[in-house]
Structure to design on (228 residues):
């Protein structure tokens, strides 16, 4: 079954670590511009699913089609290039480089793609403005709050114009006020560029920012109807 117009479709993913099946026949699909939340208890396989979809972890079996192409049929070099050009990532603790200023952090993916510094930092600053952290541009990550750091990390994930933004518990380390602000700005920024968002979260109020929810339990996934 191939839902028409899907950007990313995973079918029957299986992944075992030792005796533990982390994924046991999981399915997933997302359309361009859609925000999908992956929910489920701790250890259910959410991060493993996200890492497989993002081409970071190779499943033992199953299929992942990105724009109609099988990801695991690609060479490692091609898959890495795809990750750099089409995917953005945000993790629970931001993972900013402590030695760089905030604007240098946001500009980093562009610099790694060969964009000259001045242009990369101007684009970075535009994104920081949209995430309302441009006033922090010269600060180091250690000098900003958790919520501000996550907004810097979101700016960094979007600076290259990804088609898919993968976010694993992006608000997991924040209080509810800051978490909601990060989600508001993240979804607004992603929607403005038509980037799809794959969001892993434990929290119903974070999942409420999505268009659709997929619940993972014991490595199996289920689509949930959104109760409006
Ligand atoms: N690199 C790994 N090596 C060994 N086991 C792993 C590895 N990654 C995940 N697992 C196991 O696979 C299962 C699923 O883990 P996963 O990290 O996907 O869960 P999760 O739903 O993201 O949990 P959490 O909400 O706590 O982040 C767990 O039993 C976990 O211990
Ligand atoms: Mg996890």
């Amino acid at each position: 079954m191939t839902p028409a117009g899907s950007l990313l479709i995973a079918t029957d993913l299986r992944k075992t670590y030792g005796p533990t099946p982390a994924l046991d026949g999981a399915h997933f699909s997302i359309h361009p511009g859609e925000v999908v939340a992956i929910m489920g208890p701790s250890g259910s396989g959410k991060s493993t699913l996200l890492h497989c979809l993002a081409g970071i972890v190779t499943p033992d079996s199953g299929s992942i089609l990105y724009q109609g192409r099988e990801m695991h049929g690609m060479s490692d070099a091609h898959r890495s290039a795809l990750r750099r050009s089409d995917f953005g990532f945000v993790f629970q603790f931001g993972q900013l480089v402590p030695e760089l200023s905030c604007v240098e952090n946001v500009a980093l993916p562009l610099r790694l793609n060969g964009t000259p510094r001045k242009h990369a930092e101007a684009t970075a600053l535009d994104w920081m403005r949209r995430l309302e952290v441009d006033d922090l541009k010269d600060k180091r990550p250690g000098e900003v709050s958790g919520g501000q750091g996550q907004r810097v990390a979101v700016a960094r994930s979007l600076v290259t114009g990804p088609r898919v933004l993968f976010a694993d518990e992006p608000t997991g380390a924040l209080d509810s006020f800051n978490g909601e602000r990060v989600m508001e700005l993240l979804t607004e920024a992603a929607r403005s560029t038509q980037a799809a968002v794959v969001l892993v979260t434990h929290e119903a109020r974070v999942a409420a920012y999505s268009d659709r929810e997929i619940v993972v339990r014991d490595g199996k996934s289920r689509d949930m109807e959104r109760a409006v």
